[in-house]
Amino acid sequence: MAEFANTLDKTWGFLDVDHPAHRLSVIIPVCNEAESIEPLMERLFKVLDTQFSGLPGAFEVIAVNDGSTDESLHKLKQQARIRPELKVVDFRRNYGQTAALLAGIEFARGEVLVSIDADLQNDPEDIPLLLARLAEGADVVSGWRKDRRDARWRRNFVSHVANWMISWISGVKLHDYGCTLKAYRREVIKGVRLYGEMHRFLPVYARWMGAKVVEIPVRHSPRRFGKSHYGLRRIVKVTLDILVVKFLDRYMTKPIYVFGSFGLLAIAFSFATLVLALCLRFFDGISLIQTPLPLLAAMAFLVGCMSLLMGLLAEIVVRTYFESQRRPPFLVRELTNFEAGG
Questions:
Q1: Closest by alpha carbon to 110, among 7, 187, 210?
Q2: Which residues 6+ apart lie within 8 Å of 333 measured at CB?
Q3: What dihedral do alpha carbons 340, 206, 44, 132 form, nearest 10°?
Q4: What is the pLDDT along the chain (342 residues), one digit of tens a residue?
Q5: Which pTM value belongs to this model?
Q6: What's the CA gap between 302 and 109, in Å, rounded?
Q7: Which fold has domain 2-249?
Q8: How far apart (Å, rounded) are the C-alpha atoms in residues 138 and 185?
């Protein structure tokens, strides 16, 4: 373990013990997992204490209580009194796993962030494997529950379909987007805003920002306590979410391309329909009032004009967003031979 810690330190300065900031932040979303908290903390801190032995302040654990209605918060506070490295964020109500992970990212001080489920299905002993791949140069390491221990059809089949769909639409090929056990360099997810149920798309965001994303097999255990919060509705949510993500990636800075393209197609369709109606009138003697083509042409023309106007409005909104946030429409990885502040 000491040799591995030295490797991390030499490779990218992961363990700078003289710096007051934490170097590793483990984020745990918690929702009605009271029975799992004590065994999880015991196993997690055993791994972290062994991994970072003799390196005080090298890690922190952030548990986000996502509106639990059982004794989860009480259990977390009990553990926090025992282990000062454990920090607890308590939501006023249930906001979902995405919001819990976002809160963990916001409150974390580490240069490396590791997310893990609270239900004991992820193995904390796999965390060193994730960190080792980061030390080798990866920016995001995603866990792959290769031997998944869940219901075959209700969970595994649904996840398989969802993973295939995300990989196909996003172009980022991963076997298991739903695995919470992941490790990130802070720099590649800095500034990412998550909404809905988009936490599973963090590797997609990172890849689109130029990050190196790798996937490694991790262990997976059957659920011991409680029940799963996912079902067949997940496919519908995943489909809608990935469409939003794809749209934002492709057209965030130029929405007129998608709205304008549709508008021009609709207008072209309206003229083609009108020409067809006139041909029927003059060559086949079919009156314009005997066919719905003129009405269809008018509706298509109006839809096309509205789409073009929506595209122009979206362009104004995008420019207002970037200007108000003082955010450029690009990201810089590194600057060479630039003076500080210049």
A1: 187
A2: 210
A3: -80
A4: 444 444 444 433 444 444 545 689 999 999 988 999 999 999 999 999 988 876 777 899 999 999 889 899 999 999 999 998 999 999 988 888 888 898 888 888 889 999 999 988 889 999 999 999 999 989 999 998 887 765 555 556 777 777 787 888 777 888 888 888 999 998 888 767 776 677 888 888 888 778 899 999 998 776 666 565 555 566 677 777 777 777 777 777 788 888 999 999 999 999 999 999 999 888 888 887 888 899 999 999 999 999 999 989 988 888 887 777 666 655 555 554 466 554
A5: 0.72
A6: 52
A7: Spore Coat Polysaccharide Biosynthesis Protein SpsA; Chain A (3.90.550)
A8: 9
Question: H/E element holding 91?
Answer: none
Rounded Cα distance, 334 and 332, in Å: 6
Give 101's strand partners: none
Secondary structure E strands in 207-259? 213-217
- Residue where the block lists tokens 């042409």: 297
Terminal-residue alpha carbon distance, the chain? 42
List, in order, residues 6 or more apart from 205 with CB less than 8 Å away. Answer: 189, 192, 245
H or E element that contains 225:
none
Reduced 3-state DSSP string for 263-323:
HHHHHHHHHHHHHHHHHHHHHCCCCHHHCCHHHHHHHHHHHHHHHHHHHHHHHHHHHHHHH
